[in-house]
Design a protein that fits this description.
mainly alpha
Amino acid sequence: MNTHPLAAAQPTHPPPARFSRFLHRGYREYAPLLLRLVMGYGFMEHGWAKLAHGPANFERLLGQIGAPLPHLTSWVVPAVELLGGAAILLGAYVSVAAIPLIAVMLVATFTVHLRYGFSSIKTIGLTPAGPVFGPPGFEVALLYIAGLVALILGGAGAFSVASLTHRFRKTPQPPEG
């Protein structure tokens, strides 16, 4: 017998079946939407930042870390992030767009972030203006990769171009004549 004082306050029966069905069926298709919005915007923001600061600056960074073909890469990576991010955000060709985005994140992980460890937040000091942070580790890159793989495996979900085109394909056509 449980003698804990709060044991009596805990429900002893599961929630009604219809509530459980509502939670599992009603919201499951919206989970990818949240991933798409955050990741799509994130990729687009990073791609735009690279272009806004000038591809030449990104090219210098790529040359400094020893990336091959820094001039070409300084244009290809922002394009992949902008276009791939837009595709992810809209839920269009998610599985296709995810592959080059995963490749970009893997390269960033192994060439930049790995040496700084796992954590993406490293407080290295405190000033009167607030905390000072060090270089980010590979945590966020890994989260992006995991989210992209989840979208590949689970689909684009609700409010996506993919769900709209799927819905139109399933709509029965009236007989001709």
